[in-house]
Structures are given as C-alpha cells and as structure tokens.
Amino acid sequence: MHSRNVREEFCAAPHLTLTADRTSRATNRELDDRSLRFAFVPFCSLAQAFHARGLVRSEFPATITPIIRELMDHDVNIVQMPCPEATYKDLHQNLVREPMSLARYELDQEYRSHCANVAAQVVDQMLAVLENGYSIALVLGIEFSPSCSTILHYTNKGMVKRPGIFASELMKAMRSSQIDVPYIGVNRRGINSTLAKIRSSLEAQE
After folding, report:
1. CA 125 – CA 81 distance, rounded (Å)
2. Is the pTM of this model over 0.85?
C-alpha cells in the first residue's frame, strides 16, 4: 500500500504525494542516473496544434515552453496524456475541430464515457510508474479547457469554478486507486503564477 501525505492545496482539486517503495527506489537508482520523478501533462502542453481552431496564441505556438522548461530544469520525466477531445471518435477530423463549450460537451454522455476510458488508461500508467519505484511529482491541467481544466471556466454567465470533464474523470479514477498528487491547472493568461505553483510543489518534494 502506498503511503499518503496530504499537503496544502494549490487549487480546488485534491492532491497528495505518494511515496514509492524504498527498495524499488534503491534498485532503480542503482541502474543508472535516471530521475525518479514523473509529471503527467496535457497533450497540448507539448503540442499546441492539438487545440481546437482559434485557441493558440503567438506566445506559445508549439509548446507551453515555460512550463515544460520548469519540469526539465527539475529533471522530471514528462508523460504526455492523450487529448480526449482530439481522440474522440475521429482523430483525423478532430485535429481541425471547432471549439466547443463545457455545456455542449456535458450534453454528450458518450463523450464523458470516452473521457472515463482515457482516464483509466492514464491511471494504469500512473500505477505502473509507482509500482516500479518511481514517484509522481504532479499532474497538470489546462485552465479554461472544457475537458482538462482543473477549476476555471468561462461561460455565458461568467466565470465558474469546477473541473473539466476529463479532469473530473481523472480525479475520480485517481481517488479510486488512492493516487493523490498535486493537480495544478496551467493558466496561460497567468503563466507566472502557474510557474510559481509548480516550482513550489517540486521544490517541496526535493
């Protein structure tokens, strides 16, 4: 059973830190000089072209560079989670999809089932990481995404605070598997604040 260590929240999403088995940690460290820490990140953080049309801005045309650089500076292994929107039904068509609101996605129960299936696959990866003596430093979401937001959404009634559909399913699957790690939303409109949260979380674990 993995131990659990609850710490102060960065966002509304629950998060804890898992401690991997010490024997496995020692074995992995003896193999070579690999880092033992992992981060699970949204697909679009490394491939902005997977966003819906009109959502990519000039400051981050390909990757959300400051976020990825921060993880690299702390020698964190980066796992790119699948994009639930792009992989829904028709990947070829969805790579050039139009934006959809959270309300419209919520009307599609088949999409929620798809997100639950993707979340289950991600949790399987997380369990494999932990069972082999590594640790998960954090999980990242994308604020204002109807799928991957951890807390922030724009609606026609103003700002609302709740997880996106995929993030909600992933949080649920992680809780079911007792995998609780910092889950931080990347706010591209407030990138410095996001960086500070990520840096603080990573440094607290060193």
Report:
1. 10
2. no
